[in-house]
Each structure stands twice: as C-alpha cells, then as structure tokens.
C-alpha cells in the first residue's frame, strides 16, 4: 500500500516542533499553498526549500519543502480504534493467509459468541478468509491469526507506517525520516 505523492506538486513535509514528522503513515505532508499560508500566519518555521519560486506583484518566495511547527503538538497517547489503524497494526495483511487484497476485519471470537469489537479481538482479514471463518471460533475451523491481536501504541503504528513509504521522498526530507535508505559514507 503506497501513498501517491506528486513531486511536481511541491508538498511540504510537516514536522512537529521537535523535528519529528507528525505522522509517518500517511506521511504528514501539506500542499505548498497550505505551507505558504502557515508561513504567512507565523505558525511554522521553514527548515528547507525547493528551487521553485512563487511570485506575486509585491512578494517572491521559494517554496518550503520542510516546515516545523512553532508550537509542539503532543502526540496522542493511545491511537484511535479505527479500521485504518487495525489495518496498519496488521501491516495491511490478512492475519489468516497473508493476502493484501480485499481487506476487511474479522472478530477472532465472533460477536455471536460474545466477542467484543476491541483491539484484542479484531484483526485484518481478506474477504475470502472472513467468509470461510464465518461465525466460528478459531479452534473450530483451525484458523488462527498469525499474530495475537493487541492494542498498539502510537509508536507501534509509526513503526509499521515506516514500512509503507510514499512513492516519492524529496531529498530534503530524508534527514527527518527514518526509512531504510542507503546512507552515504
């Protein structure tokens, strides 16, 4: 699963005041228009620029490629329990067969048997596995999730998000991202 980033659109990487990205997946990016607006409202510091320049009759400015917030935004302590975050925790893979297509989610202990809709009972599952398991217990059908479902931390989700970098990473962003990139000697 890849987030499409158009390099021609000159998006700005948005860092918190501690110079860490606000999020890794999706990567915290603003359009160049939003970045310029934040600069003009004095909400961000420009860390790096593109070579592209914008003009108005009385104003000229190089587009920012990396900005940092002036005020620190405290990250959430516990991630929201959402379908997207379940998929991200499970790395966008069916927890029964490993497929990355046609994902939905499955209650390991079916709701009809008292299972709750919680981090500890919901996993990503492809539609065929979900239909095959139906409302049966894992031991009844011999279908067990590859990983025991758990409530992830924000750090867990950030780490998993790093496995899905956008299709384009501007050179000026690399010092602030921790993907597996080859380092220069």
UniProtKB/TrEMBL annotation:
Pfam families: HNH_5 (PF14279). The keyword Plastid does not apply. The keyword Hydrolase applies. InterPro entries: HNH_5, HNH_nuc, NA-targeting_endonuclease. Residues 81-131 form the HNH nuclease domain. Keywords: Endonuclease, Hydrolase, Nuclease. One of its GO terms (molecular function) is endonuclease activity. This is HNH endonuclease.
């Amino acid at each position: 699963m890849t987030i499409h980033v158009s390099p021609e659109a000159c998006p700005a990487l948005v860092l918190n005041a501690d110079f860490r990205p606000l999020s890794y997946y999706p990567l915290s990016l603003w359009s160049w228009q939003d970045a310029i607006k934040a600069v003009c409202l004095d909400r961000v510091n420009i860390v790096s620029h593109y070579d592209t320049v914008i003009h108005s009759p009385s104003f000229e400015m190089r587009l920012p490629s990396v900005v940092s917030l002036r005020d620190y935004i405290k990250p959430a302590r516990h991630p929201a329990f959402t379908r997207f975050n379940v998929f991200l925790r499970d790395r966008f893979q069916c927890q029964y067969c490993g497929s990355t297509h046609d994902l939905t989610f499955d209650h390991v202990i079916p709701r009809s048997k008292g299972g709750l809709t919680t981090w500890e009972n919901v996993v990503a599952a492809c539609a065929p596995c979900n239909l095959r398991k139906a409302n049966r217990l894992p031991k009844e059908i011999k279908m067990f999730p590859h990983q025991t479902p758990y409530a992830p931390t924000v750090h867990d989700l950030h780490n998993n998000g790093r496995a899905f970098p956008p299709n384009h990473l501007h050179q000026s962003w690399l010092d602030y991202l921790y993907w597996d990139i080859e380092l220069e000697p």
